[in-house]
Design brief:
The chain is of the alpha+beta class. It has one domain: 2-Layer Sandwich (Beta Polymerase, domain 2), CATH 3.30.460.40. Helix content is 40%, strand content 25%. A hairpin with a 2-residue loop joins β4 and β5. It is globular and about 45 Å long.
């Protein structure tokens, strides 16, 4: 992780300075919380209405790659300081559901090279991975939750803007 820390530090410094509510999740979150041993990139989540502002910030840090812009979602990729960053502003989860991403979407701050980085909730990612059909990530989180009961079970439903499908509701009821 150390060689990618510089990128995360620069990213967090800029977003913190701008007062932007963000969180970093996915593989990085699973890694810093001890669910996995490694991660590929940084997934930065922001409210949809801040997509353009955050895109400008990240574009100034390095190379901007693919952009996918939808009615209620914006995704773009960037590369700088040896790291890949995916920006997710609004996230379509299928079945008419969207991820709730706001100032309350960060659970805690992790300190990277002396800079606070807002980290998301494992519970959010469990639900989202379940909806995305990311079975391996779901299995890893289920194993983790068996040893470390969820700290924020309310997030299982707070991370989406509607009712979860019955299969997901049954999955989270186990915790």
């Amino acid at each position: 992780m150390a060689f990618k820390d510089k990128a995360l530090k620069r990213l967090a410094e800029r977003l913190n300075k701008a007062g932007i509510p963000y969180n970093v999740g996915a593989g990085w979150l699973l890694c810093v919380r001890g669910v996995t041993d490694s991660f590929h990139d940084f997934d930065v989540l922001v409210p949809f209405e801040l997509a353009e502002e955050v895109d400008r910030v990240l574009s100034k840090l390095g190379m901007r790659g693919e952009v996918r812009n939808g009615e209620a979602s914006f995704r773009a990729s960037y590369h700088f300081d040896g790291a890949d960053i995916d920006l997710c502003a609004g996230m379509d989860l299928g079945d008419g559901l969207h991820a709730v991403i706001n100032a309350d979407s960060a659970e805690r701050e992790e300190t990277i090279l002396g800079v606070p980085v807002r980290a998301g909730y494992l519970e959010d990612w469990y639900v989202w991975y379940t909806l995305f059909g990311r079975d391996r990530k779901v299995e890893l989180l289920e194993k983790y939750f068996a040893e470390h009961p969820p700290e924020h079970p309310e997030r299982f439903t707070a991370c989406v803007d509607g009712s979860l499908p019955e299969t997901v509701t049954k999955a989270v009821e186990r915790f």
